[in-house]
């Protein structure tokens, strides 16, 4: 599989090794790293590989990232790991909204997360746990994830 193919899981780790990109260091749960903290941008797929409001998973070494192309053309990246069930399923969740926030509902127990910040907006009676987030930028047709130092 080439690194531009986007099947259920993208082989971004192979792309990172081929380009000499270091292993990703992830932001704290629920906190989007600032673009000032980004030391490297890693290409994970082409914009055309994503469908509006349909999640896709990208593999970064031993972590999965859920990518979402939104109606307004922005792309959001959060951890694919559902912190409540322990399953890699966030990319299969349902995109929605709460007020001005674009959200993702976990397909397992239906917790709701803000796609911009990763904050849990509805923990379904449990203690809130947040998703990790990555900054995303588009360069031409390439979707790039920001990696922190």
Strand and helix map with partners:
Elements: E1 9-11, H1 12-19, E2 38-46, E3 56-60, E4 63-69, E5 75-79, E6 94-98, E7 101-105, E8 112-114, E9 120-122, E10 133-134, E11 136-139, E12 142-148
Parallel strand pairs: 1-3
Antiparallel strand pairs: 2-12, 3-4, 4-5, 5-10, 6-7, 7-8, 8-9, 11-12
Please describe the structure with a list of short key phrases separated by commas or semicolons:
1 helix; 39% strand; mainly beta
Write a brief structural summary.
This protein is mainly beta. Helix content is 5%, strand content 39%.
Explained architecture:
With 149 residues, this protein is mainly β. It has a single domain, classed as Rieske [2Fe-2S] iron-sulphur domain (Rieske Iron-sulfur Protein). It has 1 helix and 12 strands, in the order E-H-E-E-E-E-E-E-E-E-E-E-E. It has one helix at 12-19; strands at 9-11, 38-46, 56-60, 63-69, 75-79, 94-98, 101-105, 112-114, 120-122, 133-134, 136-139, 142-148. A 5-stranded mixed beta sheet has the order 1-3-4-5-10. Strands 6-7-8-9 form a 4-stranded antiparallel beta sheet, with no helix packed on it. The longest helix has 8 residues, at 12-19. The chain is globular and about 40 Å long. It starts with 8 loop residues before the first strand and ends with a strand. Residues 1-31 have low confidence and may be disordered.
């Amino acid at each position: 599989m080439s690194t531009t193919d986007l099947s259920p899981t993208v082989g971004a780790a192979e792309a990172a090794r081929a380009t000499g990109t270091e292993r990703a260091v992830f932001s704290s749960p629920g906190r989007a790293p600032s673009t000032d903290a980004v030391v490297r941008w890693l290409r994970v797929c082409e914009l055309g590989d994503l469908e509006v409001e349909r999640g896709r998973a990208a593999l970064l070494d031993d972590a999965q990232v859920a990518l979402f192309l939104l109606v307004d053309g922005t792309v959001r990246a959060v951890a694919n790991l559902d912190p409540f069930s322990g399953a890699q399923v966030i990319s299969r969740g349902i995109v929605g909204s709460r007020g001005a926030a674009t959200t993702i509902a976990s397909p397992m127990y239906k917790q709701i997360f803000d796609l911009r910040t990763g904050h849990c907006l509805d923990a379904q009676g449990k203690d809130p746990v947040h998703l990790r987030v990555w900054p995303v930028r588009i360069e031409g047709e390439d979707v790039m994830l920001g990696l922190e130092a």
